[in-house]
C-alpha cells in the first residue's frame, strides 16, 4: 500500500525527528558533558514540572479561546497583538494549521454525531478516539472540507510561508533540549501526548459519549465535569453545542469556564471584545 504524498511527508518527518532524538539521547548518555544532559537552565524538578504545566495550559487556552471560540465560531475578537501571539504559539507548540482545524470543527457542527461527522465516537468508536484519534483527524482534513469551511482571518505572509509549515514543534523540541538537556525530550513528548489526548480522546471522544447534559441538543454532546480548567472550559461540551456562538461555555452558577475568565480579563484590558451578534446562531 502506497502512502499519499502528504502522509508520506509527515511519516518521513516523524522518522527523521525520532532518529535525531535517539542519536541525541545516546550521545548525552555516553559522551556528552553535563550541559548537554541538563541544558543551560538551572531548573530543578519543580521548575521543569511548572514549565510543563504552564506550556500545556497556554496551548489549550490558545486552542480554546482563539482557535475555537474566535476563529471558528467568531464569538470573540482579539487585539492584533494577541492574535499574532496565539498564531505563533500554536505553530510552535502544536503544529496546528488553522484553516484545517477550523474546517474540521465547522464540519463537525454541521452534522454532529451523524454519518458525516468527521470525529464522532458514535461513528468511529470510543476506543478508536483514544487509540487512533490523530489518524481520524488527519483523514478528515481533505481538501474539499478545508476549501468549504476553512476560511480564517489574517491570511498574511506569515501564514502562507511560516505558520502553514509543520516545523514548529521540531523547533520547540530543539529549544527544550537547549534549556533542559535530555529532559527536554521527555517534556516535549508529554506536551505532544497531552494535546492529542485532550483534543481527540477527551473532547471529541468522551465529550460525545458520557457526562451530564443541560440541554437536549440534536447530538450526543455531554459536559464532562462542571469545572472547565484542565481543557480550558472545553469540558462543558453540551453547553457549547447548545449555543456554538457563545463565548462563555458555563451556564449555571456551579459551572466554571476558565477560558471565559481569561476572555473577561482581556476585555477589561481592551484586548478582546465580544461580537455584537453573540446570540445563538448556526454556521
TrEMBL record:
InterPro entries the record matches: Acyl-CoA_DS
Alphabetic keyword roster: Fatty acid metabolism, Lipid metabolism, Membrane, Oxidoreductase, Transmembrane, Transmembrane helix
Membrane topology, from the record: Multi-pass membrane protein
Major localisation: membrane
CC per GO annotation: membrane
Superkingdom as given in the UniProt entry: Bacteria
Example GO BP: fatty acid metabolic process
A GO MF term: oxidoreductase activity, acting on paired donors, with oxidation of a pair of donors resulting in the reduction of molecular oxygen to two molecules of water
Keyword Oxidoreductase attached: yes
Compartment(s) of residence: Membrane
Stretches that traverse the bilayer: 15-37, 43-67, 170-190
Family listed: Belongs to the fatty acid desaturase type 2 family.
Entry protein name: Fatty acid desaturase
Lineage of the species this protein comes from: Bacteria, Pseudomonadati, Pseudomonadota, Gammaproteobacteria, Legionellales
